[in-house]
């Protein structure tokens, strides 16, 4: 979905900015949220938001009040969201005190609220983006992960000087992933091979 607006999660509201003017044009309140984190659009224009500390995912359909699609501790601190294959992929980050503890990756059927764990794929997931036939994800501990057909292939960024890997962006025109390193206070630009 192409948009001229930027949506920014802010605890229990979502700020909407016009990209050209940089002016805030709307604020969407999600009053029952504890800590909104990542955002993703579905093909029908519904905006989905992870509520990490509320263990839930919200749906904000156009001209409708926010509703909880799923709320379940099995999500284990949901973070990154990505619409793919008619479902929402939900990457969880898990414990903030145990850096070694992995968390799950789930498919969420937004019509039913049903969660299906992606087998054999665990991590401390932060960002998720679609790229061609698969998706790139970050594991906050300094990894990029390529996911295709529910098979994960990790790539270590620590050896390139990153200390962490947070929510990422993708520039399709330049085939480049942009990965923020929150702990190291830097950005990594990863050019993908064609």
Short description:
With 194 residues, the chain is mainly beta. It contains no helices and 18 strands. It has a domain of 63 residues.
Notes on the structure:
The structure is a single chain. The protein is mainly beta and 194 residues long. The protein has a domain at 132-194. 0% of the residues lie in helices and 56% in strands. It is built from no helices and 18 strands. The protein has strands at 5-10, 13-18, 24-29, 36-41, 47-51, 56-60, 67-71, 78-84, 87-92, 103-109, 114-123, 125-131, 134-139, 143-148, 151-156, 169-171, 176-181, 186-191. A hairpin with a 2-residue loop joins strand 1 (5-10) and strand 2 (13-18). The two termini are 23 Å apart.
State the distance separating the first and last CA atoms: 23 Å
Q: How many whole angstroms does the radius of gyration measure?
A: 16 Å
Q: Give the biggest sheet.
A: 4 strands, antiparallel
Determine the structural class based on helices, strands and strand pairing: mainly beta
Question: If strands are numbered along the chain, what order do they take across the biggest sheet?
Answer: 4-5-6-7
**In total, how many beta strands?**
18
- So what's the overall shape? globular
Percentage of residues in DSSP E strands: over 45%
Sequence of secondary-structure elements: EEEEEEEEEEEEEEEEEE
Percent helix, as a range, is under 10%
The residue ranges in which pLDDT falls below 50 over 5 or more consecutive positions are none
Mean pLDDT: 95
> Total number of helical segments?
0
């Amino acid at each position: 979905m192409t948009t001229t607006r930027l949506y920014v999660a802010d605890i229990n509201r979502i700020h909407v900015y016009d990209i050209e003017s940089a002016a805030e044009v709307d604020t969407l309140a999600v009053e029952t949220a504890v800590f909104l984190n990542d955002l993703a659009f579905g093909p029908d224009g519904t905006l989905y938001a992870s509520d990490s500390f509320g263990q839930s995912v919200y749906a904000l359909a156009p001209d409708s009040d926010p509703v909880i699609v799923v709320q379940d501790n099995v999500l284990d601190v949901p973070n990154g969201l990505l619409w793919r294959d008619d479902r929402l992929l939900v990457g969880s980050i898990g414990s903030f005190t145990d850096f070694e503890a992995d968390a799950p990756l789930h498919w969420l059927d937004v019509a039913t609220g049903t969660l299906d764990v992606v087998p054999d794929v665990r991590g401390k997931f932060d960002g998720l983006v679609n790229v061609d036939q698969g998706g790139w994800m970050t594991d906050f501990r300094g990894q990029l992960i390529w996911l295709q057909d529910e098979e994960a292939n990790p790539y270590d960024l620590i050896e390139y000087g990153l200390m962490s890997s947070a929510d990422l962006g993708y520039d399709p025109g330049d085939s480049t992933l942009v990965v923020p390193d929150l702990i190291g206070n830097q950005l990594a630009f990863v050019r993908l091979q064609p």
